[in-house]
C-alpha cells in the first residue's frame, strides 16, 4: 500500500508503528538479507522451541538489518576465543560487512529444570539471547560492545515478551 505525501507529491510507504526501528545505522552495513535465524537441531527440544517462539516475537518487535544466526550448542558451556567459558557469546566482527553470530549453550537444561521451575529455566535462556542481541544492536550502531546497561535492556526485552505469552 502506497500513500501520497504532501511534500512535493512524493510517494512513500506507511510506517508500521508496532515495530521498533533503529534510529540510524552508523557502522554495520545491511549487505545481506537481515533477520534472526535459529540453528541447532542437537539442542534440547524444550529450549529450542522456547527460543524459536521468542525469536518469532523478536522479529515482529525489533529490526535485524544484518542477518544474525543463533547457534544452539548441546554443550553445557562454551569456550570463547579468549579461552574463558560462558553460557552465551556474541561474535562481533571487526569489519562491518562480516556476518555476526550468537552462540548459546543449552546442555545444562536438564540440571536446572529439576531444581527450578521449567519457566524460570527457559527464561534464563531467553535472557541470554536478549543479552547477546543487545550486544548485536550495539555492534550495528557503533561497532563497539560494552556491558554498560546491557542487563537492564535485556531484562526489559524479556519482560516485554512475558506480557505477550503465558509460558516461555
Descriptive account of the structure:
The protein has one domain: Collagenase (Catalytic Domain). Helices cover about 35% and strands about 15% of the residues. It has four helices and eight strands. It has helices at about 45-60, 110-115, 120-140, 150-160; strands at about 5, 10, 35-40, 70-75, 80, 85, 90, 100-105. Strands 3-4-8-7 form a four-stranded mixed β-sheet, with helices on one face. A two-stranded antiparallel ribbon has the order 1-2. The protein has a two-stranded antiparallel ribbon with strand order 5-6. It is globular, with a radius of gyration of 18 Å. It starts with a strand and ends in a 6-residue tail after the last helix. Residues about 1-20 have low confidence and may be disordered.
- Quick check: average pLDDT? 83
Mind telling me the C-alpha Rg? 18 Å
CATH architecture: 3-Layer(aba) Sandwich
Binned strand content = 15-25%
Organism: Rubripirellula reticaptiva
Protein name: Tox-MPTase3 domain-containing protein
Amino acid at each position: 500500500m502506497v500513500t501520497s505525501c504532501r511534500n512535493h507529491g512524493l510517494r512513500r510507504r506507511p510506517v508500521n508503528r508496532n515495530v521498533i526501528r533503529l534510529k540510524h545505522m552508523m557502522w554495520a552495513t545491511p549487505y545481506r538479507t537481515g533477520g534472526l535465524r535459529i540453528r541447532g537441531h542437537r539442542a534440547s527440544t524444550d529450549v529450542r522451541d522456547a527460543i524459536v517462539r521468542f525469536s518469532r516475537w523478536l522479529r515482529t518487535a525489533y529490526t535485524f538489518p544484518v542477518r544474525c544466526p543463533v547457534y544452539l550448542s548441546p554443550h553445557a558451556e562454551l569456550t570463547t576465543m579468549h579461552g574463558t567459558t560462558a553460557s552465551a557469546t556474541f561474535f562481533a566482527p571487526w569489519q562491518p560487512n562480516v556476518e555476526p553470530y550468537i552462540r548459546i549453550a543449552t546442555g545444562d537444561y536438564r540440571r536446572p529444570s529439576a531444581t527450578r521451575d521449567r519457566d524460570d529455566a527457559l527464561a534464563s535462556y531467553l535472557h541470554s539471547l536478549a543479552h547477546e542481541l543487545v550486544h548485536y544492536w550495539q555492534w550495528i550502531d557503533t561497532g563497539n560492545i560494552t556491558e554498560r546497561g546491557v542487563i537492564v535492556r535485556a531484562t526489559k526485552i524479556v519482560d516485554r515478551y512475558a506480557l505477550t505469552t503465558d509460558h516461555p
